[in-house]
Amino acid sequence: MPDKTKLRDLFAQGMETRRAVLGDAHVDGAEASQTEFDAPFQAMITESAWGSVWSRPYWEKRERSIVTIALLAALGHDEELAMHVRATRKTGATREDVREAMMHVAIYAGVPAANRAIKIIKQTYADMERQPTTDDRGAGR
Asked: What pTM was computed for the model?
């Protein structure tokens, strides 16, 4: 049986990191749409992905962002890819960082994977330029 105090600590740390990377508006939206069905899943990703992995001290959020984008691109996880490209506003990963990550994806995961991801990334950047987030306008903090 897992230690409930440790899980609460991982959840709290995960939620803090998740908000720092994805923004309050995104996390609040995910929380608002959560149901009894997916609540355990949401808790698990908050504790494991955000509390255990993204909160580790060895890499900055920028490095984690670059690696995450490359992995999502290589695996063809389009919606998650777009979400993490939007998160670069908060992680500090630059367009040049993302471009270089796509070069690695092309070599190590294949040109078709990189080509598809680049199309999604370009569209996401265009959307970001047209529609600043609520955090960019200072609301929702």
From this structure: 0.87
Class of the domain covering 59-133: mainly alpha
Q: Where are the domains of the chain?
A: 1-58, 59-133
> Which 3 state secondary structure label does DSSP give 131?
coil
Angle 107-22-105 from CA coordinates, rounded to 5°: 0
Of the candidates 7, 14, 26, the one whose C-alpha atom is nearest the C-alpha of residue 90 is 26
pLDDT in tens, the chain (141 residues): 567 777 679 999 999 999 999 999 999 999 999 999 999 999 999 999 999 999 999 999 999 999 999 999 999 999 999 999 999 999 999 999 999 999 999 999 999 999 999 999 999 999 999 987 655 433 222
How many other CB atoms sit within 10 Å of the CB of residue 78?
Answer: 15
